[in-house]
Amino acid sequence: MADPKGFLTTPRQDWPRRPVQERVRDWAEVYVPGALLPIIEAQADRCMDCGVPFCHEACPLGNLIPEWNELVSRDDWRAASDRLHATNNFPEFTGRLCPAPCEAGCVLAINQPAVTIKNVEVAIADRAWQDGLAPPKPPDRLSGATVAVVGSGPAGLAAAQQLTRAGHTVAVFERDDRPGGLMRYGIPAFKMEKRHLDRRLAQLRDEGVRFRTSTEVGRDIGAAELRSRYDAVVLAVGATAWRELDVPGRELAGIVQAMEYLPLANRVCEGDIEASPLSAAGKHVVIVGGGDTGADCLGTAVREGAASVTQLDIYGQPGAERDELAEPWPTYPKIYRLSAAHEEAGELRTAPAADADARLFAASTLRFEGDEWGRVRALHLVEVDEARRPREGTSRELPADLVLLALGFSGPERGAGGPVGQLGLALEDRGTLARDARFTTSVPGVFAAGDAARGQSLIVWAIAEGRSAAAAVDHWLTGSTRLPAPIGPYDRPMMA
């Protein structure tokens, strides 16, 4: 511990965001550039160096948080980068995108604001790139074994990097034209600029990872052929089977899935198209779903110039403080959080009738109403109780020219033409890929990692999955492994 009294004398200070009126006019990250490093050493000093650091347990990667907090407080960025990268392949991703369950598990959070672990993490990662502390690490020698990784999201990339560094020859197959998965086309640029992704992909290429983009397994190459050509296959295809909303009027034009809408906005930012055919510009937008994907749609619609944006959350509005009985420390609490997108919507008053910022809580969609041309024009909703039963006399109507469904995902795509169908892989009851304790599916030599097997989860769990699956593949190929396996396939987050 660099400062034994830091947690007593230094208040929590987060990375400041740019003014709302400035940042909604562009797609750059919402934070003030260069404003984190001047404050981060003092914030790292707030770490208590606990005898039992619960932040380790709250983080599936087992990040060595007290260690790199102390190193940052001592201005030893090289050592801090080494300790951070020892457990996390992509800390610049998690430092920007992870909701930080580690902070919920911070011992200081029992009765004070937690250490800004996420900010310290991203500061180390960015400083590592700035100072050249994250060079490529190609293997000293090749094993002669080959591995195909299907999917280039965080789980697939982590598995590919670990296996490549172990000496195996790895090819990553991605059906989109660029690698990155949801980080490329699902996450808006204002949450993470794509230069961070491109920089890490360049590192992987320099280490020897080969990328096969615009190649869909099952269509451009058969899944059985892929299995026969490679010694092992890792399926990291994500949970892309989106959930539907079965209410009257769903067939109307203008009602689309969030993951039909967000990629187009990202392609505008990439320069692929001039304007999105689903742009929210000038439209009354309603987002059905209260999670992070819904918030991503909210921030995107605001930047596209929507006439109004309202987000519906079927759950009631949470309180500002942790419920110690229902969600005791160190579990991740459901509390009222104000994301950058909600802050923007609240200040700009995109939904004047909303309960808070742009959200209507305890709201359930009843039906959609269309115009004479078959396009959606209104959404009818009702307030519900904790059991999701309608409250009498609470129905209302919202104008809606564009409705975005952000209801989550149920597992990987399971069509007969994809790898799941072509390989005849066994599934769990909830639709995810079945696997054993060594991440192996029902087909020998085929492994499953990430949301495809775990179900929809956090980026930090995806990276942990990729690292653990890589260790399992390495053991299967060679009979032993020195790769770390931070989690098992059946591990779950801490719950009350």
From TrEMBL:
Pfam families associated with the record: Fer4_20, Pyr_redox_2
Record keywords, A-Z: Amino-acid biosynthesis, Glutamate biosynthesis, Oxidoreductase
Pathway(s): Amino-acid biosynthesis
Coiled-coil spans in chain: none
Location of the 4Fe-4S ferredoxin-type domain: 38-69
Name listed for the protein in its UniProt record: Glutamate synthase subunit beta
Species annotation: Streptomyces aureus
Lineage of the species this protein comes from: Bacteria, Bacillati, Actinomycetota, Actinomycetes, Kitasatosporales
